[in-house]
């Protein structure tokens, strides 16, 4: 009964249910082509901008042994691996993912533990976030984002009858988030924890958890973030630098990336300096190909380029949510909540990255989904979107009178 009431809370137009056809298994012929092409467009733009942002890096002594196409080739390899993984993923029925959800979540926790083991996890700039796998360095926190979306959706389906009771419905998820938070802050990777917490809480809210319990959970989480900032000199200085980046105490220190990101965006004006003509990427703006790729887009393609990226991500997140609502209306609660969790992940992480680049949010180490350089991020983004496409395929088949 709980699942059906949740489905009624996400109504769809009647016309979506009147088409019938003889029952037949799901085929991959019917899917959301708009979602696919917007994804391909963002990947293509990201590839071009990663090459533009890294082509001059060998001039820096730190990257002197790299060729001008080093990062381009590795990014292309990540795209190739991601596309193969996506093609395999879209073949797997959503019901199978529901069965695997708890085990995949447990596997992501194991990955977060393994990366902290000395001589196993790779340390870069003081953060231990990557496990070397030869062809790429894998970041377990990226797998944890998909893992929490699946686990939280599965959890809500299993707890549907007791979702009004705090200790049986919300507290266990809070404990799981606490474990993830401890592991991620040990790396440290507070940005990934923020995204994962947003996905988990978003799914709890969309799943119908009591409003008072939800807001209490949010308040506790915000309180934890405030305490982490208050008791950490490093994080506190970042907040001060964000509030006044041009202060001489911060402009050459904690706010260095932010000030140069703002300079890059200012130089871009309306239509940009032209593709390849960024000055800030010439060793002024650190991590221009990862966390601050949008600043290079702004400098080279201007306000127009940044606006196109923002609109594309807004459309992508909105479309993912539509597919999720459609699944819930078809009484496929796990598929719907998982899809909406992926929408929160993609939209929320893009929003945070853009906010950091534009100076609207404090600096955090989060990449721009689908666009920034990073093999494991690209891989998990494509796998997640392949799952969304599979949900859409099964939705369409059900609306034609078939079976998923």
UniProtKB/TrEMBL annotation:
Principal place of residence: membrane
Single GO term (MF): lipid-linked peptidoglycan transporter activity
Entry's localization field: Cell inner membrane; Cell membrane
Keywords: Cell cycle, Cell division, Cell inner membrane, Cell membrane, Cell shape, Cell wall biogenesis/degradation, Glycosyltransferase, Membrane, Peptidoglycan synthesis, Transferase, Transmembrane, Transmembrane helix
Assigned GO CC terms: cell division site; plasma membrane
Family annotation (PANTHER family): CELL CYCLE PROTEIN (PTHR30474), PEPTIDOGLYCAN GLYCOSYLTRANSFERASE FTSW-RELATED (PTHR30474:SF2)
Name recorded for this polypeptide: Probable peptidoglycan glycosyltransferase FtsW
Top-level taxonomy: Bacteria, Pseudomonadati, Pseudomonadota, Betaproteobacteria, Burkholderiales
């Amino acid at each position: 009964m709980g699942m059906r009431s949740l489905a009624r809370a996400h109504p769809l137009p009647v016309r979506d249910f009147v088409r019938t056809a003889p029952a037949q298994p799901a085929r991959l012929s019917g899917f959301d082509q708009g979602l696919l092409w917007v994804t391909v467009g963002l990947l293509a733009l990201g590839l071009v901008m990663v090459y533009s942002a890294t082509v001059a890096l060998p001039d820096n002594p730190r990257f002197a042994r790299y060729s001008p196409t080093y990062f381009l080739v590795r990014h292309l390899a990540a795209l190739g691996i991601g596309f193969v993984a996506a093609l395999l993923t879209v073949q797997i029925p959503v019901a199978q993912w529901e069965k695997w959800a708890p085990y995949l979540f447990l596997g992501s926790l194991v990955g977060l533990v393994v990366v902290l083991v000395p001589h196993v996890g790779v340390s870069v700039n003081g953060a231990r976030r990557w496990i070397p796998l030869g062809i790429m360095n894998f970041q377990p926190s990226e797998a944890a984002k998909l893992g929490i979306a699946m686990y939280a959706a599965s959890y809500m389906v299993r707890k549907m009858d007791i979702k009004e009771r705090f200790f049986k419905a919300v507290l266990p998820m809070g404990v799981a988030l606490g474990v993830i938070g401890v592991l991620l802050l040990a790396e440290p990777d507070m940005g990934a924890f923020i995204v994962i917490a947003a996905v988990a809480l978003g799914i709890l809210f969309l799943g119908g958890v009591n409003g008072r319990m939800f807001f209490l959970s949010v308040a506790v989480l915000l309180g934890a973030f405030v305490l982490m900032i208050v008791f950490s000199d490093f994080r506190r200085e970042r907040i001060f630098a964000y509030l006044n980046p041009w202060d001489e105490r911060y402009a050459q220190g904690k706010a260095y990336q932010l000030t140069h990101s703002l300079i890059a965006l200012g130089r871009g004006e309306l239509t940009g300096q032209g593709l390849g003509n960024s000055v800030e990427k010439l060793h002024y703006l650190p991590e221009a190909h990862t966390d601050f790729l949008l600043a290079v887009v702004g400098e080279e393609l201007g306000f127009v380029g940044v606006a196109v990226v923002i609109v594309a991500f807004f459309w992508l997140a909105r479309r993912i949510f539509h597919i999720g609502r459609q699944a819930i209306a078809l009484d496929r609660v796990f598929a719907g909540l998982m899809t909406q969790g992926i929408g929160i992940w993609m939209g929320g992480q893009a929003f945070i990255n853009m906010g950091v680049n534009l100076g609207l949010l404090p600096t955090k180490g989060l990449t721009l989904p689908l666009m920034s350089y990073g093999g494991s991020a690209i891989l998990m983004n494509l796998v997640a979107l392949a799952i969304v496409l599979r949900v859409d395929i099964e939705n369409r088949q059900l609306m034609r009178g078939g079976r998923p």
